[in-house]
Design goal:
Largest sheet of chain B: 6 strands, mixed
Number of domains of chain A: 2
Largest interface: A-B, 26 and 33 residues
Helix content of chain B: 10-25%
CATH architecture of the largest domain in chain A: Orthogonal Bundle
Oligomer: heterodimer
Strand content of chain B: 35-45%
CATH superfamily of the largest domain in chain A: MetI-like
Number of strands of chain A: 0
Number of helices of chain A: 22
CATH topology of the largest domain in chain A: MetI-like fold
Structural class of chain A: mainly alpha
Largest sheet of chain A: none
Distance between the termini of chain A: 28 Å
Strand content of chain A: under 5%
Order of helices and strands of chain A: HHHHHHHHHHHHHHHHHHHHHH
Amino acid sequence: MPGIRRWSVLSLGLALPTAFFVLGPLGFLLWMGATQEGADFLERARDLELLRVVGQVALLATLTTAWAAALGVPLAWLTVRTDLPGRRLIHWLAPLPLAIPPYIGALVYQILLAPGGVLPNFLGVTSLPLNLYGVGGAAWVLGLFMSPYLYLLVSGALERTNPALEEVARGAGLGPRQVLRRVTLPLLRPALLAGGLVVFLYSWADFGVVSLLRVRTLTTIIYDYIQGTADWALPSALSILLTAITILVLLLQLRVLGRAGYTQIVGAVKPAPLVSLGAWRWPAFAYVGGMVTLTLLLPLGVLGYQASRLPAPAAFVLIQWPYFLNSLWTAVSGASLALLIALGVAWSEGRGRAWRVSGLLQVGYAIPGTVLGLGMAGFLHAALPGIYATSLALIVTYFVLYVTPACQSVKAALVQLHPSLEEAARSLGRGPLAAFWAVTLPLIKPGLLGGWILVFVLSMRELAATLIVRPPGFDTLPVRIWIYAMDVGPEPRAATLALILVLTIALPWAMMLSLRSRGIPPSG
Amino acid sequence: MELLALEDVTKRYAPDQPPAVDALTLTVEQGEILALLGPSGCGKTTTLRLIAGFEAPDSGRVVIRGETMAGGGRWVPPEGRGVAIVFQDYALFPHLTVAENVGFGLQHLGRSGRPERVRQILELVGLESFARRYPHELSGGQQQRVALARALAPAPAIILLDEPFSNLDADLRAQMREEVERILRDTGTTGIFVTHDQEEAFTLADRVGVLNQGRLEQLDTPERIYHHPATPFVAEFVGAADFLPGLVTPYGIVTELGVFANTEAWKTGEKVKVMLRPDDVAFVPSSFGDGMIIRRDFRGSETLYCIRLPSGQRVHSSQASSSLYPNGTRVRAEAHLIHVVTFPV
């Protein structure tokens, strides 16, 4: 129909500038990496013990994923499917730790365990026999604070599982344990894989935790290079290596999942009957309580304790105020830009025949922050020197990194709207834009708000790319926290700023979690 | 006056698939109620969407009030057609109250004129007291009425109804059917509705168009459709039918169940099949009969027997629900046809 062409123009108008900023940084890295001579690279790789580093990061990512799964998956099953005491409260609390960025988790454990920290002081020793600095410590922290991702995906899948499938298995003569092993868990495989992948790739490309806990990884090597030299070739080549392995893992996941990428269709499914825990109720409750303590109460308590030791807090907060504002307005701008583009992309793609821009956007989401930061800085320097090293560069970086989750939120909201709603508005005399304004927009508002909050939170806590892209002297809260913690250690100033950051993020994040549970009633 | 005309309209969704609507031509008069009847996937909903302007025809023209809406290089978007639609899922705006839903298409009236018209229309559908409710606070039948009220409010030239009663319970369906017909007749609104339920089409419509695989098989009054189906497809779709082989002779069409008038002037010697409705076939039990009851279906208001004739041909006979003959009963069957309908073999 004659409307189609307009959708194509709209989506093309979105696609071109977006592609410019998504593909530009990657292109720059490829181009720079290509100037790196092969023989020279091999020699420098040997100096850097690159193979050992890659092996170490792979170990870190694997340990983190296993640890996060061991924490998050039983928690999901216990809250969704059993008569665990206080399960509704737990269901709301469990995703909350995502408001604590892992590098702040690392800071918390530094405050707690490092030589001269809270626990050694309490015990009256100089240092503890367990070593926080290293792969083990980093995996502990990353797994702890990434486990809510697995919780969210697995509990969502458990809620959507059609209980009839399990009842059929019971009818076929399987006992409860066999049903769990042969039906429930296999049905969770896509969610487990997706959640595991998020955790694996995050820890694989993490910068904050590993730099604070002194683990050498590709990201820290890249960062050290940028700081120390004006050499672009080697960090670019390393970035390409890092990205290539990331993409390899993604492809592997597609291969493993293959046609088993089944999703369970949400229908008018009645909730599954709860498993009675019986005598296991209280051990289970203790486990869940322990998790909430470790991921939520302990970090907040430790940060609060450390912050309370700050001399002259009012003066300190006054001095740090500009950094808070820097964080706030770049995150707000980044989130708004991402949402605007996401809305255009999702709406035009919902029309069916437009250009598939969202696939392109996903590239930005798959690139590690350190790599994107490096690519973006170099690309802007070469292509748009007017933006390079301005706060605008930071906003564009947040947009490229996080437009995909925004897009997913908007799409999820649009999918729930039957096209007949907009058509009804059209047949009642409204043009396409008027129909969108009067019907679609009010109905997807919760989804839009959720997407905006998500990008805001992610931008607010972003560290790795910000460190590289930010204009000189333009520090954000995460940058300040990281610099204090790196330079002076886990002392009260870092803890105070970390507490401010966590509370700033937690408020909108908690709001989004309650939005998620409150849907718009479907029509009809 | 001719209000709507579809001229040779064809719509194809994918180049490698048969057209969803195939060279469809029909006209609808002012004030008429037309039913489009057919099995799922026959193109009836696509036809509605072509009229409403949600789809554009690949060829052919859509003409409303003599003005071309689509085809021949012209395109009028849905909002410019004056065609209202009631969707199968009602598509009520969940964020607006009943009154706001009904007033949605009344922007031209302005703030002062709108409430009066909304009140008037809500009164028509009997929902005055529900004006401030939200759609999810209404029952299915009430939602249906709101959808109808919303479509009627701007006084559209045509109102389209897509499977309007399919989401309602059986008894509510009959009640809503009557009510919708009353409202359309009272307001003189031209209505086109789509259904796969022949009973619904027959009771509500002035004329019924039977669609099959995108083609219009027959467009006629309900009585003509039932008694004089144009094709075997129509004959079977609008009610049970058996087809009895017959031979054309100078005395009529000779079949196993008797000789019928050659009303359609077939040539002597031609082979045809004669349509039998279950209510055309009677039988008496007889130990000398050459037919046999092979199946009995109790349907509540009637009992349907399946009788095997000596040739192996099966015919169905509808009898009173009190009738009770066991399987295996030998019977003598006969057919009494008021309208003899024949098709080529």
